[in-house]
Amino acid sequence: MTVEFESRYPTHPDDVKKYDTEQLRQHFLVDNLMQPDKLVLCYTHYERVLVGSAVPVKAAIELEAVDALKADYFLERRELGVINVGGPGKVVVDGNEYPLQTKEGLYVGMGAKDVSFYSDNASTPAKFYLNSAPAHCSYPTRHLTMDNCTVLQMGSQQTSNERAIHQLMIRDVVQTCQLQMGLTVLKPGSVWNTMPAHQHDRRMEAYFYFDLADDQRVCHFMGQPQQTRHIWVASEQAVVSPAWSIHSGCGTSNYAFIWGMAGENLDYHDMDKFPASAMR
């Protein structure tokens, strides 16, 4: 098993106005996720959230505390959210096994010392998407499924954004310190997500896109409402969104994405919305 680690530093919106395509991708796109037998970690300095992945094929993958964390073990001062977007697998937390089918999640609280990821079948490996944020206290580990989460039916066919928002890790479902995660699935014929677009001035957010054919893409919109920018995103890539940035996207087909948030409060609806007519 190998670990691939990188660190991303914050950007100011005035600077981002001057970024070209490559600079936008360098600072905000995480395009190296879901590599076989690798623990991939991207440490963002936005709320110090880690975006990562683990795809165990030949052997289990351990959640290692890389040197940059300055911790004895990964979750010494952190909490973790895991969502499986691949084949069946399991996560073992301090000796306790949690089977995860596709689109199921696991919340792991601060203080868990040994976390490992496994696939049931190497030919159809599990693909674990990870978000981790600093924590101030320890909450119990919790297995989260499509049946025990809150589901919001949003949008319509007329506006091409009919979608189901599965709130896996929010305050009404599971207790966390600051991490929130969920999974949005767009219906066939719908391509727009998170419209009207919005900002979370008190939270950062990361979007992980998946269930998208190899020859299809999502155009992810970011930036300030009056200074929007875009990044073309392939399946199993993520975009990091600062608090000052909107986050929305439009695909060349329907798709799914995982949203993860961390910041000052746990009110899911704490957002500043911007209708399409206000965007530039």
Describe this structure in words.
The structure is a single chain. The protein has a 7-stranded mixed sheet, with no helix packed on it. The longest helix is centred in the N-terminal third of the chain and has 8 residues, at 21-28. The protein is built from 2 helices and 24 strands. It has a single domain (2-278), classed as Jelly Rolls (Sandwich), CATH 2.60.120. A hairpin with a 5-residue loop joins strand 3 (38-44) and strand 4 (50-54). It is mainly beta and 280 residues long. It comes from Alkalimonas cellulosilytica. It catalyses: 5-dehydro-4-deoxy-D-glucuronate = 3-deoxy-D-glycero-2,5-hexodiulosonate. Keywords: Isomerase, Metal-binding, Zinc.
Helix/strand layout:
Elements lengths: L1 E7 L4 H4 L4 H8 E2 L7 E7 L5 E5 L6 E2 L15 E7 L4 E5 L2 E5 L4 E4 L6 E5 L8 E7 L7 E3 L5 E5 L8 E7 L10 E7 L5 E2 L3 E3 L3 E8 L7 E7 L2 E7 L3 E5 L6 E4 L4 E8 L8 E3 L6
Parallel strand pairs: 1-3
Antiparallel strand pairs: 2-21, 3-4, 4-11, 5-10, 6-9, 6-11, 7-8, 7-10, 9-12, 13-14, 14-15, 15-23, 16-22, 17-24, 18-21, 18-23, 19-20, 19-22
Brief characterization of the structure:
The chain is mainly beta and 280 residues long.
